[in-house]
Design a protein that fits this description.
The complex is a heterodimer of chains A (119) and B (222). With 119 residues, chain A is mainly alpha-helical. Chain A is built from four helices and two strands, in the order H-E-H-E-H-H. Chain A has one domain (17-118). In chain A, strands 1-2 form a two-stranded parallel sheet. The longest helix of chain A is centred in the middle third of the chain and has 18 residues, at 51-68. Helix content of chain B is 28%, strand content 23%. Chain B is built from eight helices and nine strands. In chain B, the strands form three sheets. A four-stranded parallel sheet of chain B has the order 3-2-4-5, with helices on both faces. A three-stranded antiparallel sheet of chain B has the order 1-6-7. The longest helix of chain B is centred in the N-terminal third of the chain and has 17 residues, at 39-55. The radius of gyration of chain B is 22 Å and the shape is elongated. Classes of the chains: A mainly alpha (119), B alpha/beta (222). The A-B interface holds A 21-23, 26-27, 29-30, 65, 68-71, 107-108, 111-112, 114-115 and B 9-10, 40, 43-44, 47-48, 50-52, 54-57, 59.
Chain lengths: 119, 222
Amino acid sequence: MRLKCPANFRIIRLPCTGKIDVIHILRAFEKGADGVYVVGCMEGDCHFKSGNFRARKRVEQAAKILDQIGVGGERVKMYNLSSGEGPLFAQYSIEMDNKIRELGPNPVKVALQAKKQAA
Amino acid sequence: MIIASKKPIEEIIQEVKDYKRLLILGCNECVTVCEAGGKKEVEVLASTLRMHFIKEGNEKKIEERTLERQCDHEYLEEIRGIVDNYDAILSLACGVGVQFTAEKYHSTPLLPGVNTCFLGANEQRGMWTERCQACGSCILARTGGICPISRCAKRVMNGPCGGSSKGKCEINKELDCAWQLIIDRLRDLGRLDDYEIVAPIKDWSTERAGGPRKVVREDVQV
């Protein structure tokens, strides 16, 4: 398809989005990620019945935690698409990239970098 | 099992902010099953606190450990070698675990990370309801297996009271009247005659009102 999408995100493959847990999302932020988005199958189309619904709930939980500590819950998002929707996948990555650029870098990463520079 | 709920993160931050080295101690029993203080919750809380304090420019050493139980000597002994590495322990066990750990490690401040709620059952995913008040003298044989002590707001022994309406309790329209449940069950069991027997005055000395309780079993002591 030769679709254009940002080169600054890393794809982590999962057997199903139902595998994802809150801690996986939080660890990404702890390690310096500026944003995380989870792409699951269309709702109602999960091969394992409710994996993508579970993922959505966990994304919401992670967003709530990130809001509470001031990192920003809008940095995580859940998307749903079918495996035949490559263009939509590219569009979501651009959308997320723009959103994160708007929000700026992860404050945890900024604080760690500042500490490193001071040392 | 013992049901606990997570404390708000703001409250935990407030409690731990002055300690530089913190151990978050989970428990593999009840609080794991009710998703308040198991290994997963320890990981999430530790990550949350680490990020919060880094962001605030107050980086701390926050480490994780989950014991099989915090209400048994042998499992608590597992952390004896490392306990001095920390300024405080944030325990995600129930109130029993927190206290037992505090008794064992007298010089280390112990902080609770959960609110211990009640003895209950996992009625459905994400919902736990009270079933027992540990009154110390079980009367379930007479009440069709439904406990009026824990499930009736008034703990009425010969119910229902006048506040029961259409099978619901007057304190909350969603709450089943325990005595309605008892009567329905006794009827289904063909034991409605039992309902006519006036319950004797309950011995409350075995309940918490008699002070902190103790069970001693000489047959299993060695």
